[in-house]
Design goal:
The protein contains twelve helices and nine strands. The chain is of the alpha/beta class.
Length: about 325
């Protein structure tokens, strides 16, 4: 999971080269997917066009799946978005996963001249249009001359709302303390196992997945790892809250616990420590929730490229084998 945060002294072309190197490394390490994001006009995200970055990533990889998390659907015309996603599925050789959402930042909606209060309604209508177009239906009387490689369309993800994802049979990602993750996982499974409502069920995902997210930092010295994570969390918080601070408004939730890295560690939102300590935390969370798909954010706040690559290497070579020994 990668926000591609800006860092002082790192130019945009350098930042992109770093991220493409990281993408190559996580593919070589056996990671299943690379998820990128969409945010606008803040330091949190230097890839406001996720499709454009994933198209570049496709040229540097051969088998890792490339996923948006998410395309902010109300910011696009449905025909333009559907055509770009079909094109991107072809450029990735059928390795595309599509995350969709209404956009969680009201200030970003206002920057685009749209009303955040109507975002949900517009999202619902436009998502249905995008799906119909990708399925090959006519749009405004015009036939679509090409189809995605993946049929009927690439897998769909809806992050942050396990209930909505479960109701529509989409993959989802949840975050927060373990207790919250367990409750959301149980609700998600209840919904996907219930008889579907045909008019709402997106059948492109025959067996949807739920995953949970953790910000990760690993060092041979656990105390040093946690100290570094706490310091970097403060910068991550500042980047995430850019627009809300600028406008003097409050966010709809508080995912960074006000930038308190110590609290984030206590809640388990951050997984930082030695490989053994991180493996123990993740194994405990997987066993309690029944979830076997975990998204790790490795480069966040002011963690630099070298630190992130070292953390990824420790995760791949030490954490993953330890977790597999425990949870399979």
């Amino acid at each position: 999971m990668d926000h591609t945060e800006l860092r002082p002294g790192v130019t945009l072309d350098e930042l992109f080269r770093e991220r493409l190197e990281m993408l190559r490394q996580v593919e070589a390490a056996g990671f299943v997917r690379y998820h990128t994001t969409e945010h606008h006009l803040n330091r949190l995200d230097a890839t406001p066009s996720p499709g454009l970055f994933l198209a570049a990533g496709a040229q540097h990889t051969s088998h890792i799946r490339l996923a948006s998390l998410v395309h902010i659907v109300p910011f696009y015309h449905p025909l333009r978005l559907a055509e770009e996603l079909i094109m991107l599925d072809g450029l990735t050789g059928g390795r595309l996963d599509v995350g969709v959402g209404k956009g969680i930042s009201p200030p970003e909606h206002r920057l685009f001249g749209s009303d955040p209060e109507t975002a949900r309604e517009r999202f619902e209508k436009q998502l249905d249009d995008v799906v119909l177009i990708m399925e090959g239906r006519e749009y405004e009387g015009a036939p679509i001359p090409y189809r995605p490689i993946q049929q009927p369309y690439p897998p769909l993800w809806y992050a942050g709302n396990a209930v909505y994802a479960g109701e529509r049979n989409m993959n989802t990602i949840v975050a927060g303390p373990l207790g919250v993750v367990v409750l959301l996982a149980d609700k998600f499974r209840e919904l996907i196992n219930a008889p579907p409502e045909p008019q709402r069920c997106l059948n492109g995902n025959s067996s949807p997945t739920i995953g949970f997210q953790r910000h990760v930092y690993i060092d041979a010295d656990g105390k040093r790892a946690r100290k570094r994570a706490v310091a970097s969390w403060s910068r991550y918080h500042d980047n995430l809250w850019t627009h809300f601070k600028r406008l003097g408004t409050s966010a709809p939730n508080n995912p960074t616990v006000d930038g308190d890295g110590v609290k984030a560690l206590e809640l388990g939102i951050i997984a930082a420590g030695t490989p053994e300590e991180v493996a123990e935390q993740l194994s405990r969370e997987m066993e309690a929730s029944g979830i076997r798909y975990m998204i790790g954010a490795f480069c966040w706040g002011d963690i630099d490229h070298t630190e992130a690559l070292a953390s990824v290497e420790r995760f791949a070579t030490q954490v993953i084998p330890l977790v597999r020994q425990t949870v399979g």
